[in-house]
Amino acid sequence: MNRKHMVRLAATSVAAASLIAAAGCSSGTRVGEENPTPAEGQDGTGEVTGSVRAAWWGSAPRHEVTNAVFDLFEEANDGVTVEREFADFGAHFERLNVQASSGNMPCLPQLQGRQLNDYTTRDLLLPLDPMIESGAIDVSDIPAEVLDTGRGLDGELYMIPYGAAYDALLVNESVAEEIGVGLPPEGYTWEDFFDWAAQAQAELPDGMNALNLGGSRPNFLISYVAASGESLFEGSELGFSQELLVEYWSQWEEARTEGVTITPEEDAEMPSAPDQNYVAQGRTLADTAPGNALVNAQATLDGTGDGGALTTVALPSGPAGSGNVLFTSGFGIAASCDNVPSAAAAIDFWATDDEAAAVFASNNGAVTNTSHLEEQLADSDMPELQAHSLELYGQIAANEPPTVVYPPGYQAAFEDAYGRAYESIAFGGTDVQEAAEAFFTEVNASLADAAQEE
């Protein structure tokens, strides 16, 4: 998601800090504490029966397939009823935060790694490792580096990811081939990326830019940090150096001032949805986008009447290798849940059931169960572009991408501040070094405040 996607959620996260602070359940384990023996039933064993509440986000098509999976779960477990709540992404977390403040979270909240520790550090979620150890939840087909995206700051597992998203470079392949630059080669570096864009700009027709204004995209920065071998965070502080940020922004500023990117004014007018951005409209050659946006982005380009084909490639590499990280979604179990065995059974169903995986069909990122991924890739009826997005996920996962553990308050402290800091450079002419210093000061102070509210 780009910065405009984050504005509403950032505001939500600010409100969440005060709401969730009052929720302080006592089921979790703090950093430095020994793991307690799970309370009776909290290892996920016991009779699977009765009702269990589940909440998730998504558009109408995702609601349909999520409901279908829970229907299958009810059919497979006579006597179990799933009470269902769903909304769009921002509204889901707004409601979840209010529910957390009143001790009324659903047993099965859908979560994402970037918001996970807003809840784990308030002891609002049950550790799931005991449920794996007891056999209540089977994660044997989920790669360790994918599963680890569901861990909290204390190392405990609080979310079982069923879908893995990633950021990719969305490229107008037809134009790239037509002007003679082709696609960036496998293993290309950030230096290669900017050289490729500059070469493309020299060949593109008037009015078309090689790149959107990527200096404002947090996801590009996350990739750059990962490829450099530095950490995005160390506990509740930024883990990479100011020098690295200055280096990164300077490259984008050079590209911007040389006309390789769109202008800040054009960037501000660009639709926020990745599948509607200027690459999808045929106005620019490349930009970062979620890998699963490819199908809809191609539909947008087709609608322009210009023809052409879009594709995605992995983000640039660096001294530490691949810069791609995974953004996973999955279900956790609320500490206030009164039906843990049924909640654990539902998570296990999402992680292991063949029919459920086929019905959901990687609707929220690539399916994390490797056997299910292989089955979907072997499906000859799968559309070519969807198959490509799953294949690219497989390549990224095979490279054992680094795990980013996001501290509480991440969304409000990091995403919003990052966008404003770069805009001060691009719009206001702030010196890159000065902007980087201000960004570090603001973010570290905000993260420290969030940590103190635990």
TrEMBL record:
Residues 27-47 are annotated as: Disordered. The keyword Electron transport does not apply. It comes from the Bacteria. The keyword Lipoprotein does not apply. Residues 1-23 form the signal peptide. Keywords: Signal, Sugar transport, Transport. This is Multiple sugar transport system substrate-binding protein.
